[in-house]
Amino acid sequence: MIFTAKAFNELTSTEVYEILKARATVFVKEQKIIYVDMDNVDYSARHFFISENGEVIAYLRAFYEEEGTVHIGRVLTVRRKEGLGKLVMTEAINDIRKNMKCERLRLNSQTHAAGFYEGLGFKRVSNEFLIENIPHYTMELEV
């Protein structure tokens, strides 16, 4: 397994393809979310992923949401129960602390995953709300 952190313009065409394939597999195929994934945020985001044999098996992106705040999104693992989510989040948080000046990290967690993020130190900062008809909380971590 290989952990990678890159800006969009550093990604190879194969890496972009594998990232988009993983996002479609998890969010469209598995979770049945119908949305436009290509939202132009990728261009300004830092991309973090774990790959094995060239396939992206865990991923997230991080981008400046507002001054002092980096937003983490599109968090996924293609394979479950292997610790990949914790690994990609931990490595990304460490990289963000070194390479992206910010005071806090923010993400929108699906409600069922809130405990996972709390285990990484995130705290709920909102009431439950819907994104694409899926319950979420906004969560933050001071860095």
Summarize, please:
The protein is α+β, with helices and mostly antiparallel strands.
Which CATH first-tier class would you pick? Alpha Beta
Give the overall pLDDT as a whole number: 97
Helical percent range?
25-40%
Residue windows where pLDDT falls under 50 for at least 5 positions: none
Gross CATH architecture: 3-Layer(aba) Sandwich
How large is the radius of gyration?
14 Å
Order of helices and strands: EHEEEHEHEEE
Quote the beta fraction: 35-45%
Q: What structural class do the secondary elements suggest?
A: alpha+beta
How does the major sheet shape up? 8 strands, mixed
Mass-distribution shape: globular
N→C terminal distance? 27 Å
CATH fold type: Aminopeptidase
How many distinct helices? Answer: 3
The CATH superfamily turns out to be: Gcn5-related N-acetyltransferase (GNAT)
The strand count comes to 8
Query: What number of structural domains do the residues give?
Result: 1
Task: Reconstruct the topology from this structure.
Blueprint lengths: L1 E6 L5 H18 L15 E7 L2 E12 L2 E9 L6 H16 L4 E7 L3 H5 L4 E2 L4 E3 L2 E9 L1
Parallel strand pairs: 4-5
Antiparallel strand pairs: 1-2, 2-3, 3-4, 5-8, 6-8, 7-8
Notable traits:
single chain, 143 residues, alpha+beta, Aminopeptidase, 8-stranded mixed sheet, globular
Please provide a written account of the structure.
The chain has three helices and eight strands. The protein has 143 residues and is of the alpha+beta class. The protein has a single domain, classed as Aminopeptidase (3-Layer(aba) Sandwich), CATH 3.40.630.30. Strands 1, 2, 3, 4, 5, 6, 7 and 8 form an eight-stranded mixed beta sheet that branches. The protein is globular, with a radius of gyration of 14 Å. The two termini are 27 Å apart. The mean pLDDT is 97.
